[in-house]
Amino acid sequence: MGLGTLSERRGWVWFLLVPSLLLIAAVVLYPTFWGMSLSFREMRLNRPDLGTGFVGFKHYVALWNDPVFWLSLRNTLVWVVGATMGEFLLGLTTALLVDRGLPGFRAASVLILLPWFLPNVVAGHIWALMLDPRLGVINDILVRIGVLDSYFAWFANPDTALGAAMVVEIWHGFPFFALLLLAGLKAVPLELYESAEIDGAGPFARFRHVILPQLQMIIVATVVLRVISLVNAPDIILILTGGGPGRASQVLSLYAFLKVSKEFNFGYGSALAMVLFVGLMGFSYLYVRLSNVLKE
C-alpha cells in the first residue's frame, strides 16, 4: 500500500490525531471525570474508617443544608460581579485614554501593565501592608486629609473586608481588560470614525455605535475569561483576609480549598468544585448567547 493511497483514507486523519487525543484525555478529561466521581464518593484522608465507597448525592444534600455554602455563594456573586465590572470599566477607560494618544499616556501605557505583572501573592502582601491598621500608608493619608478620624482595620471588619479585597483585585486585574480592549481599538478601521464624524455623530454616539459594536467579541471573551479566573482563584482573598473575619469574605473556591486542605474532605470539596463547574458552564453559555455572538 503506497503512502498516497493511505493518506487518502479518512482513517489516516484519525491516526494523526491519536497522540493529541491521548494527551487531551490524560490531561483534561481524566482529571475532570475523576473529580466528578469523587463528588459521589466518600473520601476523607483523616477518616480512613469511612472507606471510599459510593454515597450518591450525600454531599450535594449536605451542600443544600449547609449555611456556609449559601453564604459563600452570595459572597462569590458579589465578588465576581463587583470585581469584573470594576476591572472592565477601569480597563475600558484606560484603553480609551491611551488610544487617543494624549501627551504622557503613551509612556504611561507601560506603567499601566505593572499591576498585572505582579504575582498575586506579591500584590496581596503589598496591599496588606499599605492598608495595615497600624503602619499603612493609605490609612495615614486618609487620616491626614480628614476622611478618617483614626486608622481603620479594613480587612478585620466584616462590613469592609470583602470590599477592600475587591479594590485590590480590581487594581491588580484591570490591565487585563485594558490591554485587550486597547488592541481591539487599534483594529477599528479609521473609515468608521470618519463616516461617523461626517454624519455629525458626537463622542458618545461614536462610542455607542462604532466602538462598542467593534469591541463586542473582545468584551465577551474577556468577561468570560475573567469571570472564570475570579471564580476559581481565591488567592487574593486568602492572602488578605483568609475568608474572614468569621466568614464575611469567604467565597466558594476558598471554601472548597479549605475543605480539602484542612479537613481532607475530598468528596465534599469535589461537590463544591462541581457546583462551580456547572455554574461557570451555564454562565458562559448564557452570556455568549445573550451577547448575540453565537448566531442561529
Outline type: flat
Number of strands: 0
How many helical elements? 14
Rg from C-alpha positions?
Answer: 24 Å
> Would you identify the CATH architecture of the domain at 54-118 and 161-290?
Orthogonal Bundle
The CATH homology group name of the domain at 54-118 and 161-290: MetI-like
Gap between N and C termini, in Å?
A: 45 Å
Named CATH topology of the domain at 54-118 and 161-290: MetI-like fold
Low-confidence stretches: none
CATH C-level class of the domain at 54-118 and 161-290 is Mainly Alpha
**Average pLDDT rating:** 84
Percentage of β-strand residues: under 5%
**Oligomerization state:** single chain
The residue fraction in helices comes out at over 70%
What would you call the structural class? mainly alpha
